[in-house]
Every structure is written in structure tokens, then in C-alpha cells.
Specification:
There is one protein chain. The protein is mainly alpha-helical and about 375 residues long. It has 2 domains: about 200 residues, HUPs (Rossmann fold, 3-Layer(aba) Sandwich), CATH 3.40.50; about 120 residues, no CATH class. It has 16 helices and 5 strands. Helix 3 crosses helix 10 and helix 12 packs antiparallel against helix 13.
Length: about 375
């Protein structure tokens, strides 16, 4: 399998392209990022803000999970730009204790209004299983919910401006920094929904469970508005990282200092990245599934970001990847319980979504298993039939 000569991402990464020097397209995008006129972009941000400030009950919506990116975005818009913000969260059902603690502190310190929505778990576990079978990714409800629910809220409450955090240009090549990246129907269909619309998922579940009755109203948060409706409502869903240089490590320092935001251990992630993906108890299983399909995991992703930002050498990254990527996580037990399948069944499903030329190989179990034992046992009891 071919790997980028600069970072440690392989050819199996979605959208990745290698040039004739063996450098991946994301690395090349970040080189472009360094030469952009960020002073002009920040000026453009202030011009956008000026159009929307004090025009509605809220100046904008921030889709807010409580993770590092949405927390920094919320802090920046409230404290630096002085906006009245409505924080909106799609709760995917697996929020971790530290994450919830961070959310409460952040909302209190910033004095921000907050809406949170959680879908019923009986439906979610069926969607997760269908998503894994169809796409080799059990997170369809999360991918779709975090995009569609805030946009739907914006439409319903007539708050046309939304700000997400990092643009996708930071980690994939669907778009680059020369694009005016916005969350619209096109981007939602390309990046978020795995090629499955909400109405498709409804029909898939009805077909798989013919003796069960599904209430169409339960799928409402997953329906992304039409482009016509977005245009009519003048919805503009932007990315803060398109206007200010996105530097995760600096931003984490800010939210830890200003908001007492806390990091957390995550399966398959080196301790130095305690800020990464602390939102979900199943994150380790999601990264493990990706590793089985594509041959790389979360540590490859994180160390590659550090290489691009000149904060780590490729040799240092390779050592961390060897140590942390691909180990079976404790949370897999919880995932299998939720999906009501065996590990063999899970492996057979994932094999069908293997990305050439990767071949499935497994490593020893994650060294962090003991760290998560109590938290996962509590969740297993919570979700037990």
C-alpha cells in the first residue's frame, strides 16, 4: 500500500490523491493554506457578521457538541466577536461524562442559550446496524444529525447564519482552501450522509423489519432541507476555519485556559492528543472499523496534522502509529451489544467494505481497556435490553 511521502496517510484515505512526488493532496492543501491572506479573510468574516448581527433573536447558531472545535468556535464568536449565539446539539446517544461536564461549564461561563435533541434509542440502534451493513459505518445517524438538525433549527427559528468549526480542507480533498466552503445540499450529499437520504433509510428499515411500525416523525431531524428552502430562508452555514487560521493545539490551549475545558483519554489515541474526539463512547470502535477497512486509524490522522503543521517528524509519527493504530477497543463489546451481533458477524460485514489494496489484519487489544472499563460497563447496563 502506498503512503504519502510527507505525512503517514495511505492511498486508501477517502479523496486522497498523490502527485508525482508522492505527496498527498491534503498535504498540498495545507501548503496553500500557509500562503493565504488571512488578514483579508478575517476582514471578510467581520463583513459577514455585520450583515447578520442584531437582525434576529440570535445573531447565529453554532452546532455545538462540546468537543474542541465547536467549543473554540462558540468561545470565539461570543468573546471575540461579541455575538449572541444559540448553541444547538444533536445528541447521538453516546456522550461521555467528561464531555457533558465540559458542555455545562462552557454554557455557564459564556452565558449561551442551548438546544439539545436526542433521537429515541430503539430507532437509533436499528439505524446503526443498517448503516454498518450498507456502508461499513455505523454512524449515519450522527453524520446526518449534526448537519441536518442545526440547519432545520435555523430554518424553523429564522436564524439564517450558522458557524461550524474546521473546514473539511483540513483533513480531506473534497474541497480545498480556495473553495468558498459552505454546508449546503451539495456538501451534505457528498460528505455527510454516506449516500443515504433520510427517506432511503426509512424504507430500508421498513424492508428489513416488515413487522414493525416506524413513525415517520422520528426521522424529521435527519431530513436536510432542499436547496430551494435554504435559498428561500437565506441560510448561510459557514466554517470559522475558512476565515481564521485553524490551529487545533493553540485553540485547545485557549479553551482549557478560558473555559476550564478538560481533555479525556480516547481508545487508540496517544495521551498527548487528549483533546481529540472525546465526545463519543464508541469513537474507538469507529476508528477501529476504519482501520479494518482502510488500514489506518485516528493516530495516523492526528500525527499527519502535526507533520503538516511542522510539529512532528514523519519518523515520530510512524512510531506512534505502530503503537496505537488498529488495536481492538474495549468499546467494541458495547457496540456489538447494541447491534445484537457477534464479533464474527461484525468482521464479516466490515470485510465487505474493504478498500483496496488494504487487507484486514488485527492487532492486540487496546492498552487503554482498563481506563474505560467502568464507563463502558455503565453504558452496557444502560443499553441492555
Amino acid at each position: 500500500m502506498e503512503y504519502c511521502k510527507k505525512c503517514v496517510i495511505p492511498q486508501t484515505a477517502e479523496t486522497n490523491r498523490f502527485d508525482d512526488q508522492g505527496i498527498c493532496s491534503v498535504c498540498r492543501q495545507i501548503e496553500v493554506k500557509d500562503g493565504l491572506d488571512w488578514v483579508k479573510r478575517e476582514k471578510n468574516l467581520k463583513e459577514v457578521i455585520k450583515k447578520y448581527k442584531n437582525q434576529n433573536d440570535y445573531d447565529c447558531i453554532v452546532p455545538f457538541s462540546g468537543g474542541k472545535d465547536s467549543t473554540f468556535t462558540l468561545w470565539y464568536l461570543v468573546k471575540i466577536l461579541g455575538l449572541k449565539v444559540l448553541a444547538v446539539r444533536y445528541d447521538h446517544n453516546f456522550l461521555r461524562n467528561t464531555l457533558n461536564h465540559n458542555v455545562e461549564k462552557t454554557l455557564t461561563k459564556l452565558s449561551v442559550d442551548f438546544i439539545s435533541y436526542k433521537s429515541n434509542f430503539k430507532l437509533i440502534r436499528k439505524i446503526m446496524k443498517e448503516s454498518l451493513i450498507r456502508r461499513g459505518d455505523f454512524c449515519w445517524h450522527c453524520h446526518v444529525g449534526i448537519c441536518a438538525f442545526p440547519i432545520n433549527t435555523a430554518c424553523e427559528k429564522n436564524i439564517p447564519l450558522l458557524f461550524y468549526g474546521e473546514p473539511s480542507s483540513e483533513y480531506s480533498s473534497y474541497y480545498d482552501y480556495n473553495d468558498n466552503e459552505e454546508l449546503n445540499v451539495e456538501k451534505f450529499n457528498i460528505i455527510s450522509n454516506l449516500g443515504i437520504q433520510a427517506e432511503d433509510m426509512m424504507e430500508m428499515l421498513k424492508e428489513r423489519y416488515p413487522n414493525e411500525v416506524f413513525d415517520d416523525r422520528d426521522f424529521k431531524p435527519f431530513f436536510f432541507p432542499s436547496q430551494r428552502e435554504l435559498n428561500k430562508k437565506k441560510i448561510k452555514a459557514l466554517y470559522l476555519g475558512s476565515y481564521i487560521p485553524w490551529d487545533v493545539k493553540k485553540q485547545v490551549e485557549i479553551i482549557k485556559r478560558e473555559l476550564d475545558w478538560r481533555g479525556e483519554s480516547v481508545e487508540g489515541v496517544p495521551p498527548e492528543y487528549d483533546y481529540e474526539k472525546i465526545e463519543c463512547a464508541l469513537q474507538g470502535s469507529r476508528d477501529y472499523t476504519k482501520y479494518l477497512k482502510r488500514g489506518f486509524g485516528r493516530t495516523s490522522h492526528l500525527t499527519s496534522i502535526d507533520i503538516r503543521n511542522k510539529k512532528k517528524t514523519r519518523e515520530e509519527a510512524i512510531e506512534l502509529v505502530k503503537k496505537f493504530d488498529g488495536k481492538k477497543p474495549k468499546s467494541l463489546e458495547l457496540l456489538l451489544q447494541i447491534l445484537n451481533i457477534s464479533e464474527d458477524e461484525y468482521n464479516e460485514i466490515v470485510k465487505k467494505h474493504l478498500i483496496y489494496p488494504n487487507t484486514i489484519s488485527t492487532k492486540k487489544e487496546n492498552e487503554n481497556r482498563n481506563i474505560f472499563h467502568e464507563e463502558f460497563e455503565d453504558l452496557k447496563n444502560k443499553f441492555r435490553d
